[in-house]
Amino acid sequence: MKTKSIVLIALLLTPALAACNTSNKPATPVTENAVNIRSQEKGQEMSTPSLKINNPGSQYYQVLKENKPEVSNESGKFKNKELLDLNSKIKFKPISGIDFLDNNNIIFSVLNGKNNPDDSSANCDLYKYDLKNNKVTMLCAEYTLYPDASVKIKDPNSFSIIRNDSVLSIENNAVKMKRNLINEVKEKFPNVNDVFFNEENYKLLILENDFKTKTSAVYLTDNKLLSTEKLPFVNAYRAYWADKNHVLVAYKEGNKSILAKYNLADKSASLTNLPDNNTFLDPQISNDEIIRFFYKEPSAEKPWGFLDLGKKTIKRANFEESNPVSNVWNGRMGGFTESSSRAKKQLFLYEIASNKMIIRSEDVDNLYALAVSPDGENIIFAVSTPNGETRLYSNRKP
């Protein structure tokens, strides 16, 4: 979670794993030329509130020059080691998603064999693994960790997983809250596309797209859907939380794409005109207030943007023949190259601040999921074998 949009973070999936990773949500194209915005009350039309702009004629976020990562091959310094005990404990079953909670604990989902046709997210169970103590703990049955989810961490035993259709909260290694947000809101918002929960203010941010009428609307509502406010945006195609007091809304104005940071208190917006042919697709926030997104629709190339909320900058890095799949942790993310000229894949670590892409292994085959530790020392990744097994490895200095 998602799937939320026109594009998803790409995964190379075995047929079995695909059952665990398939969302029931339709893809979301960018909606243009909206005319009216419908309210949540069937048959009613709500006028769009006027937008108060804080920075007319200037840019709120500084959009930096597009660059390609600087590649450095340091594969000789790192070794891949199979996590034999963990693989044995999960019986070599396919997994979905990996995330570090700290340098010693990871979470991931394992295929449970239920093959639920109505809710594919129930086809996996969520586990935590303590690397130091070699301990596996099941945290939540029938829950899939998707690679586009954001993990908000209090400590290794308490965290939340937030996606554009659901939220799971774990407290002291037990489920505190598990909600299917799409099912909760679809009666009042039948054209819901995204719904994001904010656990700091207990509000829901909802994006509706009506493909028949070509209209879109962004709503803010309380946790029980009793009080709803429509935000002053038309032609919106993404809405996302920046923090508990601000939301980000990307919308089209003619052929231009505009990113607005909207203040919920004074109902004002600070605008950034994105460069020509640039967009704000599939945002995913990290622990250090960096939001990664696609600034163009990805194909073989992956055009990743990095919005730093603290520094108010947008960096853009165009990855050739690569497919990063890990979340951002402390300004780093992991990925692997895909090249028709190379039989096997290269595992790499990308550092956002320096724009350096460090090759850490050159001999990885059938890699499909990975995560980077907070200190950047350890990359854990999963590979699928010809006989259908999944094996997890650790990449780090000997």
UniProtKB/TrEMBL annotation:
Print the keywords alphabetically: Signal
List the signal peptide residues. 1-18
Q: Does the keyword Signal apply?
A: yes
Q: Does the keyword Signal apply?
A: yes
* Superkingdom of source: Bacteria
SUPFAM superfamilies under this entry?
Answer: DPP6 N-terminal domain-like
In its UniProt entry, what is this protein called? Answer: Uncharacterized protein
Q: Which organism is it from?
A: Heliomicrobium undosum
